[in-house]
Amino acid sequence: MTEHVPAVRTEGLRRTYGDKRALDGLDMTVPRGTVHGVLGPNGSGKTTLVRTLATLLRVERGRAEVAGIDVGARPREVRKRIGLLGQHAAVDEELSGRQNLEMFGRLHRLGRPRAAARADALLERFGLEETGHKAVGSYSGGMRRRLDLAASLIVDPEVLFLDEPTTGLDPRGRTEVWNAVRSLVGGGTTVLLTTQYLEEADQLADRISVLDGGRVIAEGTADTLKAMVGGDRVDVVLRDRAGLPGAAAVLAEVAVAGTVEADEDARRVSAPVADRMAALTHVVRALHDRGIEAEDLTVRRPTLDEVFMHLTGGPADRVDRAGGAPHADRSGHDGKVSA
Amino acid sequence: MSSATSSAVPPAPSRAPGPASAFGWWLADSWTMTRRELARWARRPVGVAIGLAFPVMMLVMFALFLGGSMTVAGGGDYGEFLVPGMFVLTMAFGLEGTMTAITQDLQKGVVDRFRSMPMAPTALLVGRSVADMLESVVGLAVMVGAGLLIGWRWHGSLAAALGGVGLLLLLRFAMLWCGIWLGMIVGRPGLVMAVQILVWPVAFTSSAFASPESMPGWLGALAEWNPMSATATAVRELFGNPGAAGTSWPAENALLLAVLWPAVLLAVAFPLAAARFRGLGG
């Protein structure tokens, strides 16, 4: 794959399940050697996109290329160049970790001795040498994911697809997987990572595509996306709920385009501002004049949550109303996009 | 996380030269998938033992509990009649085992990995069929041993007896691919239970346990044409056991039908199963 050929390119990619549009004319280009985050709520088409690019789903309409190869026309050539870490562990639970890796090595045509050596190297690399002989069914979630990741790296893939790699993992397991993914970057592998954890995209991805309803609705670095919501934000948390309307009025005086968000339960009002210091000074003085007591007052960059809210008109953890891929809703939405 | 995680992934080895042809790779991949099954069996020996013991238990139940009160149309010892029938039953019921295994496999994420790898597309199915055939050879050997223990014998030549074994395995092979195809159609392990129940009336509507001549007319005719009856009658003939004699066309041409039926079933099920597997994700 030459430098100028993107790792992934899709053009008007469409896919329907019955009358639901899982992918609705999706255009995306991922330059090689980068980590690209695909961020979206359940049913936004993330999993359908990954499964299509990984040759598991047929290209219905539109065009998809991986490493410059047409996925629909030459799936076999694509398979030689990709690694896939799906939402559910794609390893044989009844076999040991080592048996799994050796099997995948042979299927990748390494030949038996090289497959065995590769299994050893990967088990050691992912800290599984102690448990390599045990059945995968006895592994913890984090261990299973690491084995799964190892299985995706039998041969150095040009493009590695990670579909919600940390869904269902505890924080420790998540850190383990994040560390493993970070260490891959720099080896020349392009990583396409889907996630519904905004923090994950922020942590790992160079660029982020935001998906909604099977389409890319925004794309850029985490910083550019945050800037789309309007630069800095002022947050005011009140001691008393009664002060909310007053505080909202104060914030409206400094808010860009007059947009103020209020969260009654959190006793918080929030607004994007243009000049952070001037805005803060004004807010402090105005609140004091009105006798409204603030418990907490902060100036900060917007979170990706707010970007999401801004772009999709709803919180990131809502269950999408249309275009739900059958595989995308298995994970539930426990704990993601925690407030 | 240990410090090992922060180190880089070691570079991957190059691919081995290996077989030059696509067919060679197909064989190699299929063998890898067969080994996967064998390794799984090695990890659950009790389950495998139960699978082998179940038909033996059935044989003992039918031969010792019911055998005394059964007579064979055309004369002869019921035990001698029953044992080949039980061989056929064991082979035909292999359908369920294969079906269960395929539906369970397709539920697993590991199939996604197989399908996203540059392996021969049908290797998973072929590996399953080879492994199940190996299991069937062992299962049949166990049943032959059990038959011999309760007094069953073959009376013809060894070559004819081996021919009988060959027909039994041919039936198993055909049922196996039917099982793979059906397993992919039903998709869910829960629906396999329906098949597990349905195989019983099908098995009884054959000459496995009783001669079709002793059944009500229409049922007897149905039983005569059952592929299981063809194999049962043919192997009785080859083993020199009673019950092979019959005057109907299917009974007189049992050997032909015992080859033809499985061949037809294979010709239908194999391409459909392969096409269905390739069409996953369509």
Automatic annotation (TrEMBL), chain A:
<dbReference type="Pfam" id="PF13732">
    <property type="entry name" value="DrrA1-3_C"/>
</dbReference>
<comment type="similarity">
    <text>Belongs to the ABC transporter superfamily. Drug exporter-1 (DrugE1) (TC 3.A.1.105) family.</text>
</comment>
<dbReference type="InterPro" id="IPR025302">
    <property type="entry name" value="DrrA1/2-like_C"/>
</dbReference>
<keyword id="KW-0046">Antibiotic resistance</keyword>
<keyword id="KW-0472">Membrane</keyword>
<dbReference type="InterPro" id="IPR005894">
    <property type="entry name" value="DrrA"/>
</dbReference>
<feature type="compositionally biased region" description="Basic and acidic residues">
    <location>
        <begin position="317"/>
        <end position="339"/>
    </location>
</feature>
<feature type="region of interest" description="Disordered">
    <location>
        <begin position="315"/>
        <end position="339"/>
    </location>
</feature>
<feature type="domain" description="ABC transporter">
    <location>
        <begin position="8"/>
        <end position="238"/>
    </location>
</feature>
<protein>
    <submittedName>
        <fullName>ATP-binding cassette domain-containing protein</fullName>
    </submittedName>
</protein>
<dbReference type="InterPro" id="IPR050763">
    <property type="entry name" value="ABC_transporter_ATP-binding"/>
</dbReference>
<dbReference type="InterPro" id="IPR003593">
    <property type="entry name" value="AAA+_ATPase"/>
</dbReference>
<keyword id="KW-1003">Cell membrane</keyword>
<dbReference type="InterPro" id="IPR003439">
    <property type="entry name" value="ABC_transporter-like_ATP-bd"/>
</dbReference>
<keyword id="KW-1278">Translocase</keyword>
<keyword id="KW-0813">Transport</keyword>
<dbReference type="Pfam" id="PF00005">
    <property type="entry name" value="ABC_tran"/>
</dbReference>
<dbReference type="GO" id="GO:0005524">
    <property type="term" value="F:ATP binding"/>
</dbReference>
<dbReference type="InterPro" id="IPR017871">
    <property type="entry name" value="ABC_transporter-like_CS"/>
</dbReference>
<keyword id="KW-0067">ATP-binding</keyword>
<keyword id="KW-0547">Nucleotide-binding</keyword>
<dbReference type="InterPro" id="IPR027417">
    <property type="entry name" value="P-loop_NTPase"/>
</dbReference>
UniProtKB/TrEMBL annotation, chain B:
<feature type="transmembrane region" description="Helical">
    <location>
        <begin position="254"/>
        <end position="275"/>
    </location>
</feature>
<keyword id="KW-1133">Transmembrane helix</keyword>
<feature type="transmembrane region" description="Helical">
    <location>
        <begin position="123"/>
        <end position="152"/>
    </location>
</feature>
<feature type="transmembrane region" description="Helical">
    <location>
        <begin position="46"/>
        <end position="69"/>
    </location>
</feature>
<keyword id="KW-0812">Transmembrane</keyword>
<protein>
    <recommendedName>
        <fullName>Transport permease protein</fullName>
    </recommendedName>
</protein>
<keyword id="KW-0046">Antibiotic resistance</keyword>
<dbReference type="InterPro" id="IPR013525">
    <property type="entry name" value="ABC2_TM"/>
</dbReference>
<dbReference type="Pfam" id="PF01061">
    <property type="entry name" value="ABC2_membrane"/>
</dbReference>
<keyword id="KW-0813">Transport</keyword>
<keyword id="KW-0472">Membrane</keyword>
<keyword id="KW-1003">Cell membrane</keyword>
<feature type="transmembrane region" description="Helical">
    <location>
        <begin position="190"/>
        <end position="210"/>
    </location>
</feature>
<dbReference type="InterPro" id="IPR047817">
    <property type="entry name" value="ABC2_TM_bact-type"/>
</dbReference>
<dbReference type="InterPro" id="IPR000412">
    <property type="entry name" value="ABC_2_transport"/>
</dbReference>
<feature type="domain" description="ABC transmembrane type-2">
    <location>
        <begin position="46"/>
        <end position="280"/>
    </location>
</feature>
<comment type="similarity">
    <text>Belongs to the ABC-2 integral membrane protein family.</text>
</comment>
<feature type="transmembrane region" description="Helical">
    <location>
        <begin position="158"/>
        <end position="183"/>
    </location>
</feature>
<feature type="transmembrane region" description="Helical">
    <location>
        <begin position="81"/>
        <end position="102"/>
    </location>
</feature>
<dbReference type="InterPro" id="IPR051784">
    <property type="entry name" value="Nod_factor_ABC_transporter"/>
</dbReference>
